[in-house]
Structure formats: C-alpha cells, structure tokens
Amino acid sequence: MGNTSSMLTQYDIEEVQEHCKHAFSQQEIVSLYQRFCQLDRNGGGFILTDEFLTVPEFAVNPLSQRLLRMLNSLNFKEFVAFLSAFSPRVPLQQKIEFIFKLYDSDNNGKVTFHDMLDVLRDLTGQFISEQQREQVLTRVLEEAGYTKDSMLVLSDFVKILGSSDLKMEVEVPVD
Amino acid sequence: MDTAGMLKPSSSELDLDRPNIEDYLPSGSSINEPRGKLRLRDLLDISPTLTEAAGAIVDDTFTRCFKSNSPEPWNWNVYLFPLWCFGVLVRYFILFPARVIVLTLGWIIFLSTFIPVHSLLKGHDKLRKKLERVLVELMCSFFVASWTGVVRYHGPRPSIRPKQVYVANHTSMIDFIILEQMTAFAVIMQKHPGWVGLLQSTILESVGCIWFNRSEAKDREIVAKKLRDHVQGADNNPLLIFPEGTCVNNHYTVMFKKGAFELDCTVCPIAIKYNKIFVDAFWNSRKQSFTMHLLQLMTSWAVVCDVWYLEPQTLKPGETPIEFAERVRDMISVRAGLKKVPWDGYLKYARPSPKHREKKQQSFAESMLRRLEEK
Question: Do B1 and A135 touch (CB under 8 A)?
C-alpha cells in the first residue's frame, strides 16, 4: 500500500482499520485514501510538506509547522492513525494524548515551560511580547498549582483537560 | 496587565490587488469565544485550532474547486459495452476527422481573408477593424462547430459602448471562444507559450488584447493602466475580463480580483455553465496541456453550455470595489448554480500570505488578554 496504485483492496482496508483501532469506518477509510492520493501529487506514497501546504486552509493555521513535523513521511496507514485522534469514536484520553504529543516536541514524555511557551508563541505570534507571554503562562501555571520549573506528564494533561468539554472531531466526507 | 506589549500588525502585504480574505471568511468559524477567567486549561486546550487543521487535511474547499470529477462509467455491462465501443469508433473515426476538416477549412478561410484585410486596409482603420471583428467571430464559430458546441445564449447581446467591461466566470480557455463567436471582445489573458501564444500575438492582437504575466508583481500596475486606457477608448472592442484569474471546475467560484471593478465603469456580468452530460469542459491546466484539452473536446459528442448575459451593474454609493466584486460574483454564481468559496484563485500557484495566519494569531492573543482581565 506504500505504492501508488489507486485501488485499495478489502484486505488493505481491514489492515488500516486494525491499525487505527477502528477509529474510522471502512467507507471513511476509502474516502481518506482518495484524499491521500489527491494530496500526494507526485505519487511517492507519502505526502510531502509542500503538498500539505498547497491546502490554503492548512497553511494559514498557526500550528501547521508543528503538525507538519508529526505528518512528515507518513504512509497512508500512519496517516489514518494520525487522524484517528479526530474521530468521534475515539475516547477523550486518546485526544489528550495527541495534544500532549504535539506539545512534547522532543518526545521525552515531559512537557516543559518552554514547550508550552513555544506553542503559545505559535498561537499568538507577534501580537504579544515574549515577556508578556511568559508572565501569562507563569501566572496561569501557578494558579493551577504548578511552577515555572514544573515538567508536566501525560497524567497532568489528563487532569487539566479531562474535565473540560474538549471537542476535537472532524467529519470525513463520504460520497 | 496593560496592552503596551501589543505590536502592530506586520506590513507583509505587498499585493494591493489581492482582496482581504478576512472579508470573505465566515466569521465565527474559528475559536468560539469562551468566557470566564483564563485558566491553564484554556491555554493548553489547542483543540479548536487542531480541529481546523485536521479538517483542512481531510477536506478543503480550495482543492474542491479544481477537482475534475471523473464521470461514472455507464458502459459496465454486457450490452452497454459494445454500444460504448461503437460510440468510441464513431467519435474517433467519423466525428473527429470531420471536425478536423471543418476546423482546417475554417483556418484556411480565415487566414486567406484576414491577412489581406490586415495588410491591405492599413489606412482604413474603421473598415479594417470591422472586418477583422467579423472574421474573428467567424473563426470562433468554426472552433465551436469543431466540438459540436451547443451554446444557448440568454439575455441581450453585448454592445460596443465605452466605459463598460464584461466579466465572466472561468472554466477553460474555450470560455473565451464561446463568447467571442457572439461578440468580438478584447480580452485580458495570461501570455501562453507555444501555438496559443502565437495566436495571441497575431490574431488576438487585432481585436485588442491585453497580456499579463502572473509571475511578475510589478506587472499588475502596468496592466491596470492598460485596462483603464482601453475602456476609455470609444472605438475599442468591449473588454472581457475573467476576474477569478484562473480556471475553476464550474461547480464553484473563487474570489474575484477587484481590478475589473475599480475601473470606474459599468460592469456587465456573464454567467457560463457547462453541462457535463457529454464532456467536462473544465481545463485542469495542471493535468492537461491546452492541446490535449482541445483534442479531448473534439473527440467527445458535444460541448453543451448556457451563457447568460446579466444586467449591467455599477458601483453603488458607499460600496468598495471588493464589495462590488462580491456582489457581481453572487449574481453570476446564483445564475449559473455555482457555490462560492472564499479563496483567491492564485493560491493555486503561490502560498497564502502570512497575514491570514496573523489575523488568527491576533484574535487569539486579544481573546487571551481580555480573559486575563476578568475575575
């Protein structure tokens, strides 16, 4: 399936479904494959950064660069697994894990003050000074019971985000 | 916390011609405004932004504009398949040669009358122009015949009057030919290489065409001036502009460039809708060369389309050119049954300007600071 054939066999679909833990229905996987082939213009079996950036809605998103790091060189199976965090069939825990992974850029299981500051910078750009950003983050962390030197792990994220009504769902268009 | 730390928006906007995307994007489509004091949870919860990004990855309105949907195959069973084969034989071996003959005949007639008229009548400009107009219209009719074009025109035919421009939605270069067979328009086009470019510089020059080059930034001002000069001339052929700036698949319209709407003239909208029953007339310039596209048309049964000449519009008092452009785009989209999308067609060739992202960042930053103040 890493090749460029535009035909998915039933076996392929089931394999992808297994891999993403049934986050998507078989019809949705077929749709996602059509979309994958549409974006993978040179037919290399994975979507290049440039090919993602041809989607203007994606390119203007403040978090696009961080997402591109995660989307780099994904084949179709991994692409579907990546998107599974956005399926309505997936538990809140998995969505929070996805958010955690986005913050944890060095993948060591810990999110530092600087990781959070980086994401905040992506989201606010030049409309807040660096100093102000640090101040806001420090204040909000302290109010939640952490300090500037705290290193948050996944369970902290679950505690902080778990009670909120987090909505992170995307609808896959099915013909 | 004061707002002294707020910096001014960056001035990375170089293109004056690009309409503001924020005027078009549906408001409230992004982060909805939560209330209440800012907590850690609010800073860490990036799910709205992520959802937008994932939504764009899964499906986006821009790519949809340029997708050519391959038609459902209808020849899938035992008795339809031979019928289809028979159809292929007729189209390729009977219709196609006949059409090539018609087209060649047309070219011969055209060139043998155009060249003498062009060179011999140099002194009698008015007569020469009139004849050249008729000849170009004739040539376009030959082209349309070569695809068995079934074109229904609705509405009053264009007239030659100063201070008016015609705008139409764009699906393929054949839009121009279909409209040209009824009226000899002057058109503004991207300069193409190859035989099309040759045609552009010789024959189309006679009806008064304006060239632009998408890749040159300075070009825009030069072209704007040429447009203004053209519409002032009472004698010039009516100017036809495709404000989308690129070919779209005839199911959507992309944003209209405001250039055509700030010339201080009447704008006459034209809506074109192709019926995909026999062939899809969308020219996907990334997938096909124009020659291949023409050949595809010539080996199909027919090109069927409707052309509506709509009521001329002028800039209303207090209306900006962008609002005017959108109003006309509305008229054309409704008439031709097309959906509007808030994207600039040039995004096919270039990245979106950073100011779109900056707008999102600005609104997030402002919301964050506002909530910080709340108790």
Answer: yes
